[in-house]
Every structure is written in structure tokens, then in C-alpha cells.
Amino acid sequence: MKILITNDDGVFAPGIVTLASCLHERGFCTYVVAPDRERSSVGHAITLTRPLRLWKITGGRYPENLPVYACDGTPSDCVVLGLESEECSGADIVVSGINKGPNLGDDLTYSGTVSAAVEGYFLGKPAIAVSLNCGSDEESQHYDSAAEAVVAILGKLEIQKFGEKPLLNVNVPDLPKHEIRGTRVTKKGFRYYKEKVTRLLDPKGNEYYWVSGKPEDRLDEGSDVKAVSEGYISVTPIHMDLTDYEAIEVLRREGFEDLKI
Amino acid sequence: MKILITNDDGVFAPGIVTLASCLHERGFCTYVVAPDRERSSVGHAITLTRPLRLWKITGGRYPENLPVYACDGTPSDCVVLGLESEECSGADIVVSGINKGPNLGDDLTYSGTVSAAVEGYFLGKPAIAVSLNCGSDEESQHYDSAAEAVVAILGKLEIQKFGEKPLLNVNVPDLPKHEIRGTRVTKKGFRYYKEKVTRLLDPKGNEYYWVSGKPEDRLDEGSDVKAVSEGYISVTPIHMDLTDYEAIEVLRREGFEDLKI
Fold first, then answer.
1. Do A73 and B118 touch (CB under 8 A)?
2. Number of folded domains in chain B?
């Protein structure tokens, strides 16, 4: 099994280095194609209006003999080039991460990390996005716990029979391995961002805006948000059929098929 | 009913000008907040690492008295600022488009136009994405047909009771009004992109890559792809619960909740 690893925090971020090093040490055949800089919150963006470059990276904190490429595109671009370019191809599975910070609830569609996994899935591969539920203090980030979670999941997936190829969103509590309580298979939960816009004035008195917002989690039973908050690894299987089948019936009943212009 | 209009082709694109002008003429209370340049295929990207500006646009091809703002962010940024900034807020519904080119099948997650509608939905508003199934020849683009489709849908939505707020992906054939055969309520179909990567050499002999690919459509019965190909307006209700509930059962059966690291 050959594994393409990517992320959205950039090719030199500690999360992807830990993940790639761990999988390489455990004997998995892996290669890395990741953005040359941080590309968080770019969603499923893909670059169609300018060409892209790939650079082979040598040295750094990656193990020797592990092929590593940086790309000046988005995480999804990295997956396209990582699966379909001449320089690097042949992966059987895509693993995206380890993201610095969780991807829970409706974070999914904003996340470059999750969207890279979706791109792998669209290109016919099983895919796993993995995120660490950490803050910004690098000293206390347990990327090794998240890497071990990926090893364990890959072990299970080998003996696994899915109807369709699996697409998994994994979130890992930021705890040492022995403090993690176990694993929960979860549904996507809800996290809201309140007060998304901050208005400030520049030195000339002109307005500008920051988009941000503090997350507020809804701790629904069985959700990704709740599992991680309780110290469990959360594994959420996701699908990309965005059709709202119930609403199809509503629209038909309400006469939308008689709509004339 | 107050309508926020946005798009991903940029604030001066013919599609958004036609849409805003049509709704304004029909007496809808509207305002525009749209990207200052083309931002196609940026997906649900949102700008968290730099501040954003809004500029009030006067003149151009927009009707007088219609408030129009350009923003140097993504389509989703425009929706956040268009709903939650001091300068422009108060919309009851978000309409995103008219996109130059269709958004069918798995285009949805790449599309800035559809993602802007999703952002409106996440911020608590009903939302409609509307796209014209056109090529690049401006002379033959029937944006007026797509604008009339939005007027008709807004008329129906007023008398509509949904379980949740509606989120609709509308695709309109590039035909004069009288040649459009009617409306179909559809499911998301499938379009594949073959041969996504083109490798070229620059004048120095270094490789670079274009990501592109020609779409190949699967004409499934009841799908958006098929309806538009047959000359119907396609209305696909979409939802954002990405949980694959069937796969939850598979994962539990296969012992993923016993996973230890």
C-alpha cells in the first residue's frame, strides 16, 4: 500500500513531518506532496488560472529516502499533482494532516486538510483527514498520538470491506497516548462561529475587517465534537452526495416542476 | 424581503450585473457584495490571515440606487461581510450568481458561487446558487433567462414551507427564455474530469503543470446534469450533513470503536 501524504499547514509543519516520519518508520511506503506555505481555510480551492510548480525537498526534519515535494498550490492541487503527475504518482490512499487544530462540525468545508482528502476520494482513492485538537502552543502538541491513530486506522482499513471507498475525518484529542480514552465512530456535529466580523480603522481612518469568530460547540450525543471533548479519537465517515432528498419531495409537492419563466 | 447578491466571477461580471439589475427592476430590495476580481474555483475558502476591505462602487452598468460593494476577499468572505458588517447587513436571503458556466455534479465543492450560498446557509439564511450552462462566448450568453429563473423561484419560495431553510443549486440552460423546456427538481449528478494534469517545460527546461481537465458527464436519470442537457432548468436542493450514516454502521461492525493506540 502506497500512501500520498499532504496537508494545509505547509510542507514543513510539525504535524505532517511527524505523520510522514511515523508511517515511514513503520514500513509504510509513503511520499509527501504538500503546499510550500500555510494554506489553511482554503477549502476545496483548486488552481486553474496559473500553472503550478513542484520542488523536491531534501533534508529538513524528514527521514532520508522519503520523497518529499513542495507545491505552490492549494492542498487539493497537491493531491491532483501527487496522484496524476509524472514525478509522483501511484498512491493507493491519501492521508491529509496532521492538521494543527481540529476540523469538527461545519469546519469540514472550510478546511484545506479535509478538502485534500475529498480530492483524493474524487480521484478514486480511499482518503483520511486527520487533525489534532490542539491550540497554538507547539510545546504541548501531541502529534505523535495522532500519527499512532492513523497507523491503527490503516491497520484496520486493510481488512475492511466498504460499499464505497472510505472517506474518513479523524480528530484526535491533544493528549499523550495513554490518556486517550479510546475511539468513537461519530457523526458530524455542530460548531458555530459567533461575531465573525471585527471592524477596525487604519492609521488614515479607513475601515477594514477581520473575519474570525470564536467557535461554540454543540455537544450532541454521538457527534465528533462531543467525542473529542471527552478525550476520544473521533472517526467520522463522510460522503459527498450533497443532495437533500427530503427537500426534493417538498419542492415537487410545492409545484417547482411547474415553474415557468 | 432583502436580498444579498454575490458571485465568484467578480463584481463587474455580466452575470451578476444582469441578476442584480433584473431583481432591482422587479422591485426586490437588493444589495451586492462581490469579489473585486474573478475568484472562480476557490471553493469555501475564507480569509483568516489578512484583513479585508470593502469599496462602494458607483456607476458602471448597475442601476442607480442599487448599493454595490467590492471586496478583496473570497465569495464566502463577501457573504460574511455582506451579512455581518456595519456597512451592509440585513439580508433575508443570499443569491449567488449568475455564474459563467454550470455548477453540476461534483463541481459543487470547488465552486466559489455555490460555496457562497453555503456560507449564507451557515449564517442562517435561505440561499440560492445560480449558474448558466454557457461557454465563454459572451455574445451568446443568456443571463436574462437565468435571472428570470431566480425571479420565478423567489416567487415560489415566499409561499414555501421547508423543514429547514432551503439551500438550492440552480443551473439554467444557455437558451432564450422561450426555448427552455421547463423546470426539474433534481439530485446531484456526476461529472468527471479526465486527464487533470498537463506537464509543460518553461524556456529554461524546467517542468510546470496546469490543472484542468475536460468534464465527462454521466447522464443519470433525475440528475442535474441530465436535466440541463435536455433543456430544463435544474433545481437541486442541497444539504451540508456530510455524515455517511451507512458507513458508521460498517465501521462499528468492523471494530473501529475498539481501536487502541
1. no
2. 1
Tally helices (H) and strands (E) across chain A.
6, 13
Query: Which ranges constitute the DSSP H helices of chain B?
Result: 14-25, 75-84, 112-122, 143-157, 224-229, 245-253
Residue B239 lies in a domain: yes
Identify the domain containing residue A67 by its residue range: 2-190+218-258
In a domain, B250, yes or no: yes
Cell readout for A80 is 491532483
The predicted-structure confidence for A101-141, as pLDDT tens digits, reads as follows 999 998 999 999 999 999 999 999 999 999 999 988 777 89
Q: Do B244 and A251 lie within an 8 Å CB cutoff?
A: no
Are the C-beta atoms of residues B99 and B143 closer than 8 Å to each other? no
B96 to each of A157, B111, B132, B170, B200, how far by Cα in Å? 40, 11, 12, 10, 35
Q: What is this structure's pTM?
A: 0.95
Q: What is the CATH number of the domain that holds A186?
A: 3.40.1210.10
Is residue A166 in a domain?
yes
List of chain B residues whose C-beta atoms are within 8 Å of the C-beta of residue A184? 257
**Phi and psi for B137 in degrees, rounded to 5?**
-80, 105
Residue B199 lies in a domain: no
pLDDT tens profile B189-221: 998 887 789 999 999 999 999 998 788 889 999
Of A86, A152, A241, Cβ closest to residue B188: A241
